[in-house]
Amino acid sequence: MKSLQLILSNPRYFGPAWVFTSLNIWFGTWAIYIPTVKEKLDIDKADLGIALFCLSLGVFTIFPLASKIINSMGVGKATWMGVIVASISALFPLIAPNYYLLMGSLFLFGATNGLTDIAMNTLVTEIEKEDGQNFMSAAHGFFSLGGVLVGLSSFLIPVIGNPALHMGITVVITFLINLLFFKRYVHITAPPEAKEPFSLKLFKPLFLLGIIGFVAFASEGAIVDWSGLYLKEITMAPEALIGSGFLAFSVSMTLGRFLGDGISAKIGSVKIVALGALIAILGYTLVLSEGTLLAIIGFALNGLGFSVIVPELFRIGGNVKGVDSAQGISFIAGTGYSGFLLGPVILGFIAESSSLKHSFFTLLGCILLVLGATFILQRKKSA
User: Which of 198, 206, 224, 282 is most buried by a 10 A CB count?
Assistant: First the structure.
């Protein structure tokens, strides 16, 4: 909780943390209107999956360019530029008049989100180096806080009655808060550092961690993108409760990220991953019950479970014997982010060919595999 107090008491830390919050507010507001966009453009789940893939493609397209942009502009300026372009691009998906423009706008939205994501994480790293203060975990907690705010705003859907207007109001308010704090970090620069190429010999000890990361992030992405549609189509939830699954998931995710470090210190990294998997399994069981209230509680348990899994994967990955910590963390981040972006797309095709409920059965099966993988990790740790 010390890092949380640091952020709340010092504008130098609150400014970057609010960028984390902003990114999830923009993305989450788009996500709660996915069912509306699907109906408006009269597309099926497979088409929706392709559109979501365009968002993923935008993110992966910017990855090779992001470091050059950040180094040429300076990390502070690049973060602020990311805030500007991401806030503008957030408006386009909900006003797209046809399917093809939806794909194009999601590609742009993904690219600007990807740039902002890399820039803000680099910014926090540089501030930590300069000040000798650690607040990266709490900054990611603020990312989850953005989801909480989106979930709360979902109750205004019947009142506002217009997705584009809702997004417009959200963008303006979020941007104005960024405007108050960007001068606190815009001057910060990060000299480019030479990176060692990733060697194939490093793949073996990280293989299990990569699988766990892919599944954990894919599940998070699936709940963000599909929870609203699941509540609407499977549990027949009223319109006012469509965003409640995302809200419950985000609240518990936020609490888990702020409290997880203390639990990890007591029971260890592998055991807390196993505990998180067990909680997520219980969550999916409730989601698959098809009752609206039980499903919402299930999404909350999913958020709590995955909130402690993801940070511990980075911790374990940075301490794999014989593997440089930076390389281990980079591998976990790459596989995890791939899961976050590609998971919802794969589930879209499963939902279209079978049913949305079968997609969540698939997620349940994957998290059972994660639980099994923790026993292997514990055995290797004990050996």
Answer: 224
Question: Read out DSSP for 269-324?
Answer: HHHHHHHHHHHHHHHHHHHTT--HHHHHHHHHHHHHHHHHHHHHHHHHHTT-TTS-
- CB within 8 A of 271, min separation 6: which ones? 374, 378
Instruction: Report the candidate in 225, 178, 129, 155 with the shortest Cα–Cα distance to residue 21.
Output: 178
Domain range enclosing 141: 1-192
Segment among 23-32, 235-244, 328-337 with least mean pLDDT: 328-337
Q: How many CA atoms lie within 13 A of 341 on its CB side?
A: 22
- 96: Cα within 13 Å, side-chain hemisphere: 28
> In terms of domains, do 145 and 251 share one?
no
- Of 94-98, 138-142, 215-219, where does the model show the most confidence? 94-98
Ranges of H-type helices in the chain: 2-9, 11-32, 34-41, 45-73, 75-89, 99-131, 136-153, 157-160, 163-181, 203-233, 244-267, 269-287, 292-317, 325-353, 356-382
User: What is the chain's mean pLDDT, rounded?
Assistant: 83
User: CA–CA separation, 335 vs 331, rounded Å?
Assistant: 6
pLDDT of residue 326: 46
**Phi, psi of 203, rounded to the nearest 5 degrees:** -70, -40
Which of 65-74, 170-179, 293-302 is least confident? 65-74
Same-domain pairing of 173 and 226: no
Q: What is the pTM of this model?
A: 0.72
Range with top average pLDDT, 20-29, 242-251, 341-350: 20-29
Using CA atoms, how far apart are residues 271 and 238, in angstroms rounded to an integer? 39
Is the confidence at residue 330, as pLDDT, over 80? no
Non-local (6+) Cβ contacts of 275 within 8 A are 263, 267, 305, 308
Do 165 and 223 share a domain, yes or no? no
What CATH number is given to the structural domain containing 351? 1.20.1250.20
For the chain, how many residues are written? 383
